[in-house]
Design goal:
Blueprint lengths: L3 E11 L2 E9 L1 H6 L7 E5 L1 H6 L16 E10 L4 H11 L4 E10 L8 E10 L8 H17 L3 E2 L2
Antiparallel strand pairs: 1-2, 2-3, 4-6, 4-7, 5-6
Helix pairs in contact: 3-4
Length: 156
């Protein structure tokens, strides 16, 4: 314990097992060896670290078919949560919709009181073929209708 600088060191734990330590060396230890600068140090208990590892690795082949990314901007009441919007969109087609990511939230007087606009990107991709624009348009229009029924207003 005297080896480590108080307040500038930490133990690395996982499942109550000590995996290692990291931090600065106590200045009194450095002085003993005539070292005038600050020194950082780390150590790991490889036996404990490797005990946490397993070889149960799973790999998924990279999809060779292209993605289609479409953006939507929708005005909602301030109380609507992004997680709820994301869930509704993903449920619309959980096979072809690969992700839904929010990239902008705008609030302004032109939207109305207690309103916000959320812009998000929907990524579509099939595992076994190239998607056609028409089939993505059908899903996108279904999403728009569901969001409008939920009180959303599509921004053009």
């Amino acid at each position: 314990k005297l080896f480590w600088h108080k307040g500038r060191s930490a133990e690395i734990l996982c499942k109550n097992k000590l995996l290692g330590r990291i931090g600065e060396i106590n200045p009194s230890v450095l002085n003993t060896f005539g070292i005038e600068s600050r020194v950082g140090y780390f150590e790991f208990d490889l036996e404990n670290l490797f005990a946490l590892c397993n070889d149960n690795r799973k790999y998924k082949q990279i999809n060779k078919f292209p993605e289609i990314k479409l953006d939507l901007s929708v005005v909602f009441d301030e109380g609507i949560k992004w997680a709820d919007i994301e869930r509704v969109v993903m449920k619309t087609d959980n096979i072809l919709i690969k992700s839904v990511e929010s990239f902008d939230i705008y609030r302004g007087k032109n939207l109305g009181e207690n309103k916000k606009s959320i812009a998000f990107r929907i990524t579509y991709q099939a595992e076994n073929r190239t998607l056609k624009d028409e089939e993505v348009d059908i899903i996108q229009n279904k999403i728009i209708k569901i969001l409008e029924k939920s009180g959303g207003e599509i921004r053009k």
